[in-house]
Design goal:
Elements (H helix, E strand, L loop, with lengths): L1 H11 L3 E4 L13 H18 L4 E4 L21 H6 L10 H10 L2 E7 L5 E7 L22 H14 L3 E5 L11 H12 L1
Parallel strand pairs: 1-2, 4-5
Antiparallel strand pairs: 3-4
């Protein structure tokens, strides 16, 4: 990874890094809870050190929890593995409100650009759309807005629209055909609106 980090910093020189999730390898049936947590912590530390000085915006993948693919979003902090490694991501988050959003349900936003008056005109919005993943059995019983993420997303986008702003929406699960329950229909309606 060190050579990759060197190439990214020295040759690509990006303004930001979008970390798309699934940090844990896909040999998940041979991994334990402790191994998933350890891998997430070590990889996060490597990103922080290797890409120091570049803004990093991560999102949770379906393999970043234990057991894989299972993401409980009915109650705050209902994913033990994420509860342990999630603190390593706090420095990527802009304020306590977003730390709380992430800790509770795995989503957050961060300002990217402000105008001359300090009004945020561009944001990165990281969604925890793992509820839509077809092998997340929680999606079978989730008919509401887990963690009020969709209501929060709509408010974020409404605020940006009011200042003619823009958003980059980051999510591991693309929510195309997989996300077709009530949550998915509402998510697609919000995307169509904004």
């Amino acid at each position: 990874m060190n050579e990759m980090f060197k190439y990214v910093k020295d040759d690509l020189k990006p303004d930001m890094i979008l970390w798309g999730g699934d940090t844990v390898p896909h040999d998940v049936h041979s991994q334990t809870f402790d191994e998933v947590v350890d891998l997430m912590n070590r990889t996060t530390d490597a990103f922080k050190e290797g890409l120091k000085g570049i803004k990093i915006y991560p999102t949770i993948g379906n393999h970043d929890n234990y057991p894989q693919d299972q993401m409980n979003l009915h109650l705050p902090k209902d994913n033990p593995a994420i509860n342990i490694w999630g603190g390593h991501w706090h420095e990527f988050l802009p304020d306590q409100e977003q730390v709380d959003n992430f800790d509770n349900f795995g989503y957050y936003s961060a300002p990217i650009k402000t105008d001359k008056n300090g009004i945020v005109t561009s944001k990165l919005i990281s969604l925890n759309n793992n509820i839509c993943y077809q092998f997340n059995w929680e999606s079978v019983v989730t008919f509401t807005d887990p963690g009020n993420m969709l209501r929060w997303l709509e408010k974020e986008l409404e605020t940006l629209q009011s200042v003619n702003g823009s958003a980059i929406i980051l999510s591991h699960v693309p929510n195309l055909d997989e996300c077709n329950r009530q949550y998915g229909r509402r998510y697609h309606a919000i995307m169509d609106k904004y």
